[in-house]
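Please fill in the sequence for the structure shown.

STRUCTURE ENCODING:
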């Protein structure tokens, strides 16, 4: 039998550092006395930890705190925008995207490079990604900031326990160790690298920065070449026991539908994904489709309504199972929201059992196609805030 050991001094400090930094992240402008009151730590302990966090560029002293009433005002503390940044990387089917996010959540140097990643070998695509990573690291150096963590968003199944990309059907990839492969090709840091499904990262970005005040339970649907769903319940991502949840695009909605890249037939993404909509609308790209929709062209409108029917058939099953009150349309669907939302909402109202008492809201993502890369970068930042000593100690 293994007996638990008392927490050592370093363990206690690590815990308390996270407690202090988390309190300040939740209440920017709070004073040392306010942190002590909120956390239950002594003022002396808080002062010592704050000094250490300031020295590590995680906190900044913003002058006297703002508050009403008499008495001496304490020093206002906030997360430092010059502290470590998170680097987000998204490897999509038809583009590679990067951005930097600072501790306050502000986005810097967002870059998107269109490219066809389906027709290229894995190594060639990752060489392209590595160049984008090195450019982003150069952007951070030009800002004079450290990259404290990296998040990589991919369109496939990422195993939580190992971080391996097990399968990306639309890329044709299987069992790829992305951090190891990119380290061989770029200056990617040796630690602090996260890998996750793009729809999950997009859902987290929507939760943290989407502007839907009070929305803590929803399904975020990112529709591009593939279709992914990020499920948020009680303010936390639900991605299944192994990280494989949310594969909405591979719901079988038609037994006679076209063959999918996953090997099955009639998957949702083959009937309601971006390529299927463009094909039915006879539009060469999304910009032309939107122009035709704005002009009221019947073929374009019918293509989007048809996608809404297929999407509604799949989402009604998800909502009947999970009982969440909202769907957020992201990616391509965010641009199509004005024409997609009403027919989708109508479909859901007729097929979701609880809709008569709790109508399902169909919302538009304000982040659009940037959501996944921003969520990946923000996840790296939040990892630092949750455990600042893991960032400070090696440095």
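FILLED IN BY: designer on duty
SEQUENCE:
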């Amino acid at each position: 039998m293994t007996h638990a050991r008392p927490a050592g001094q370093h363990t206690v400090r690590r815990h308390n550092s996270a407690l202090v930094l988390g309190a300040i992240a939740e209440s920017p402008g709070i004073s040392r006395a306010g942190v002590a009151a909120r956390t239950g730590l002594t003022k002396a302990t808080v002062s010592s930890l704050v000094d250490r966090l300031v020295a590590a560029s995680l906190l900044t002293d913003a002058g006297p705190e703002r508050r009403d009433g008499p008495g001496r005002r304490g020093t206002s503390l906030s997360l430092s925008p010059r502290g470590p940044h998170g680097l987000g990387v998204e490897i999509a089917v038809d583009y590679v995207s990067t951005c930097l996010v600072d501790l306050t959540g502000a986005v810097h140097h967002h870059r998107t490079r269109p490219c066809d990643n389906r027709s290229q070998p894995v190594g060639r695509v990752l060489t392209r990604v590595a160049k984008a990573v090195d450019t982003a690291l150069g952007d951070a150096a030009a800002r004079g900031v450290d990259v404290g963590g990296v998040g990589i968003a991919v369109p496939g199944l990422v195993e939580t326990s190992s971080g391996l990309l097990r399968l990306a059907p639309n890329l044709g990839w299987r069992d790829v160790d992305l951090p190891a492969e990119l380290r061989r090709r770029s200056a990617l840091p040796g630690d602090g690298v996260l890998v996750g499904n793009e729809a999950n990262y997009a859902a987290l970005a929507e939760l943290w920065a989407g502007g839907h005040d009070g929305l803590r339970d929803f399904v975020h649907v990112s529709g591009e070449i593939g279709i992914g769903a990020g499920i948020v319940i009680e303010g936390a991502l639900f991605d299944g026991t192994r990280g494989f949840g949310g594969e909405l695009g591979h719901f079988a909605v038609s037994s006679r539908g076209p063959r999918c890249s996953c090997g099955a037939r009639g998957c949702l993404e083959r009937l309601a994904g971006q390529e299927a909509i463009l094909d039915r609308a006879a539009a060469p790209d999304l910009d032309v489709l939107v122009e035709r929709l704005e002009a009221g062209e019947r073929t374009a409108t019918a293509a989007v309504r048809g996608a809404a029917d297929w999407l509604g058939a799949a989402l009604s099953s998800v909502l009947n199972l999970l009982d969440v009150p909202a769907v957020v349309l992201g990616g391509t669907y965010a641009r199509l929201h004005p024409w997609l939302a009403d027919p989708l909402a109508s479909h859901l109202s007729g097929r979701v059992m609880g809709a008569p008492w709790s109508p399902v809201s169909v919302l538009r993502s304000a982040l659009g196609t940037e959501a996944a890369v921003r969520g990946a970068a923000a996840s790296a930042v939040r990892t630092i805030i949750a455990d600042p000593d893991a960032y400070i100690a090696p440095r």
